[in-house]
Amino acid sequence: MIITRKKKVPVHWLFYAQLPLLLTIYGESVIHAPFLLLMKKFMDNPAAIMGLISMEIYINLFGAPFISWLSDRVWTRWGRRKFFVVIADTGRALCLLAMPFAPNVIVLIILRWAFSLAGSFGSMTQALIYEVVPPPQRGRLSGFFQASVQFGNIIFFFLLLGRFDDYYFMGPFRYVTELSGGAIMFWLCAFVLLGISAFEALGFREIKPPDGGSINDGRKPGQSIFIHFFKSFYQDVFAKDLLPIYLFVFVTIMFAVNLGIFQPLLYTEQWGYSLQDMGNTMAVGAIFSITFALIAGWFADRYGKIQTFVLASAGSLIMNIFYTVWVAFQPDNRPTLIQIIVIGNITQAFMMVKSVVTYPLMMEYVKRSRMGSASAGIYLFQNLFRSLVLLFVGVWLVWWSVWFFPQAGYQTATTFPDEIDADQLRSKIESTGLDPDDYLLRPIHQYGVDKETSMRWWIHRNDEETADILAELKDLKNELSSLEAEVTSPFLTEPERDAINEKIDTAKSRTTEINETLERGKSELHRKLYAVLGDALFEPGAQLRDARFEDDTLFLALTTIEELPQEQVELFEQNLNGPQYQVTASKNDLSSSRWRSEVRVEVVDGETPGLQVNAKFDPNFTRIYRILNTGDNLIPATFELANSINSIFQSGLGRGNQQFTITSVEKGTRDGQATLSFELSISQNALTSDASLLAEALTQEQAIEDASTQQIADNRYRFELQLASEAMTAKNSDWLSRSRADEIRTRLDSLMQGEAFAQGLATETYLRLADVLASQPFYVNIPENTPRSKHTEREYEYFFSSKTLEIASDLVGFAIIFFIIYIEKKGVIRRYGAEEDLKR
Questions:
Q1: How many domains does the chain have?
Q2: Which alpha helices (H) appear in 364-446, and where do they start and end?
Q3: C-beta separation of 319 from 810 below 8 A
Q4: CB 26 within 8 Å of CB 189
Q5: Is the pLDDT of residue 174 over 50?
Q6: Among 287, 297, 430, 494, which residue's Cβ finds the most Cβ atoms within 10 Å?
Q7: Are residues 28 and 56 in the same domain?
């Protein structure tokens, strides 16, 4: 049992006393980066996101400060502070359980506000902890606390954040909901909050203070309780003796200015790293910070908290300036992960020292009987200052983008046979009568490469109308989500339901109009530039050096612009895995068996880099695909259908080459509808021999309307599938994929000189391979003649914009620190909390 108001407590109490605040922070971890990832599903504008989030602070201004103040003036059978803290953590847990399933941004932001409102009941948590721990031990308490926070960061960033976008099999519940990594993170944090609320209720005992106040203290006879309440609150919270802590609140806000919830976008959108990379760097930094947290607590108790705070603030300012200059001189302004870890850890060490010292230093100016009022004032001013800073950070990012970066519009990425510079490209555009000043030109490189010349160029045209209609499109998406949820309500009358359906139809119609407008703008830019640059672009099909298909094995030799590092070859092979390939058993690093697709990739060195790919297809897949695709080298629906059928049988019967065999594949029609029939032979080692289960699984596919089966021998069945019309005739509606397939058609004809299905396999494999190769973490591109045109939103820059703001706010913070030191020497402010314990 943890008891308050002791002059000295055992060291192990320091650990237990911190748990209410510590585990609350663990529970709140998903409200930062993971919550932003949920918000990004509905909107992208930083100012809008920060504006919605910052509104919660104004809502809480009417709760947390008054509850903190009230905790100084009440006493219940459960104590005066823990009663509120238990309510706070239980309420927040319920909000976290619901957040992953919010159908639209309105519901999500309301849950966020409710989470924060419930949290306002726990605004005096630190006051409860500091009633347990006396001032001489608070530095070490803060050290324990910060070290424990960093341990939580290791778990969160290293193990959880990178799994946010993962999805997990839910068995029979898959028809009710999908379980994502993000949902698991929110649920885990909810259970943490429920657990700590139980610990707070059962593990703390508050001793009634002799100088504790009452809510009626100072109340005049006949005075309204509400007038007395607000008058007393104002007098207590805005008293002169609390001035130094409010100055420190502003200082800490100034020193804490950073990207905040936009940090993941710096890693993923600007630097091209993954969320797991970000999580790893944060986790390594957390390990480093644990040591400094423990040392900082001891150092602050021994040598003085204000001196420690000033030294740490100076160190973090110097490191911010150094980091900014360092990145400015890196290629592509992109530090490596090692550089991020090293420089970040040094900066984090200074930040950690400040975090350890700040709250113990503030509480040295406050008597124990005034901690509730102090917590109320801290919460009030902290949230007021923080909301203004958060809102300004979002606005600052937008301003920075407007000043220095392309705005919404249309862009195209083109590839030339040789490297050219901006002047050469501008000259090509100008020679045809177009004004090059209407376009923004930028060379495209891998992340971390910075050259003036390139084979690939990004050509962008700003368009104000695009910005407006993209914003409208986001609003329509949110509106549709809300209306589609509302229309299913059983409490609606038929006229009300009809009115909502009419609104849905109107919103969908407007959405279609906007998409058509965007498509026209993109096509116009593409036609205009292709007419100008078409003859100068990379030769169609020249990226294919060789292509053959023999014995169910496809061989492709391809030219690449960049070279695939040898250490990434195995990872690239794994990323190419698919049910269309034959598999073999292999061992992983732990000697556990696993199935691996027979796809092998070799890097071609030389002046012109390239790849050689050998992919052995599953014979069952090729037998189906050979029949389905007989006329066109790109009918994705048939490729996906063959893949789905093979995948279902692999899942139901087992992977490996001896579990089942598909033969006698035939295509036909019945009652004017396309059919596909085949014989399935199931081996004795298969996971099941129930063909009806397999038929039922096949009917779940969108391209298969019905599936029937007939046994023709032991473990041998005849399947007949009724296909949806698009399964046989639909071609890719994606213009880009069609154009990319068309550009290699002639080259494939000359290299393969075979049947259509082999060229279809080569085309589908090429497109998938090229897309995987160009994605994270490889960023290796195959040169193509087809320009990549699209509409784009405003481009944001996160590093230099945030660092500029951080340095400026650090300088403001320093000015206030020196002002506090000056007025303390003049005797204007005193450390009442420290003096109180010396007199006891």
A1: 4
A2: 371-404, 422-430
A3: no
A4: yes
A5: no
A6: 297
A7: yes
Q: Are residues 473 and 525 in the same domain?
A: yes
Last residue of a domain, one of 509, 537, 565: 537
- pLDDT of res. 592: 43
Give the closest residue to 366 by CA, choosing from 375, 358, 353.
Answer: 375
Q: Is residue 386 part of a domain?
A: no
- Considering the domain architecture, whether residues 87 and 121 belong to the same structural domain is answered as yes
Given a cut of 90, is residue 322 above it in pLDDT? yes
pTM of the model: 0.69
| Count of other CB atoms within 10 angstroms of residue 477 | 17
Count other Cβ atoms within 10 Å, centred on residue 222: 5
Q: Are 372 and 81 in contact (CB under 8 A)?
A: yes
Between 674 and 54, the more confident residue is 674
Task: Let me know whether 521 and 599 are in one domain.
Answer: no
- One domain, residues 68 and 144: yes
φ, ψ at 410 (rounded to 5°) = -125, 145
Asked if residue 146 lies in contact with residue 355, where contact means CB atoms within 8 angstroms, the answer is: yes
Q: Is residue 679 part of a domain?
A: yes
pLDDT on residue 657:
65
The parent domain of residue 492 ranges over 409-537
Q: Is residue 423 part of a domain?
A: yes
Domain co-membership, 706 together with 605: no
**Cα separation, 302 vs 296, whole angstroms:** 10
| Tokens standing for residue 758 | 């082999």
Provide φ and ψ at 589, rounded to 5°. Answer: -65, -20
ω into residue 495 within 30 of 0, thus cis? no
Neighbour order of strands in the sheet with 716-723: 660-670, 673-682, 716-723, 704-713
Asked if residues 34 and 157 have their Cβ atoms less than 8 Å apart, the reply is no
DSSP 295-317: HHHHHHHHH-HHHHHHHHHHHHH
**Per-residue pLDDT tens digits for 734-760:** 677 888 888 998 898 889 886 778 888
Q: List Cα–Cα distances, 358 to 20, 324, 817, in angstroms.
A: 19, 26, 12
- What is the pLDDT at residue 732? 47
CA distances from 804 to 251, 268, 322, 323, 720 (A): 17, 21, 12, 11, 66
Res 590: pLDDT:
44
Residue 58's pLDDT is 64
pLDDT (tens digit, 9 = 90+) per residue, 463-472?
888 888 988 8
Each residue of 809-819: pLDDT tens digit? 999 998 999 99
CATH number for the domain including 683? Answer: 3.30.980.40
- Out of 210, 234, 262, pick the residue that ends a domain: 210
> Are both 61 and 104 inside the same structural domain?
yes
Domain annotation covers residue 513: yes
70: which 2 tokens? 């009230």
Element (H, E) at 320: helix 305-328
CA 688 to chain centre: 40
- For residue 768, with 0-12 CB atoms within 10 Å meaning exposed, 13-18 middle and 19 or more buried, which class applies? middle
Residue 675 shares a structural domain with residue 581: no
Q: Which amino acid is at 120?
A: S
What pLDDT score does 184 carry?
A: 76
β pairing state of 660-670 and 673-682: antiparallel
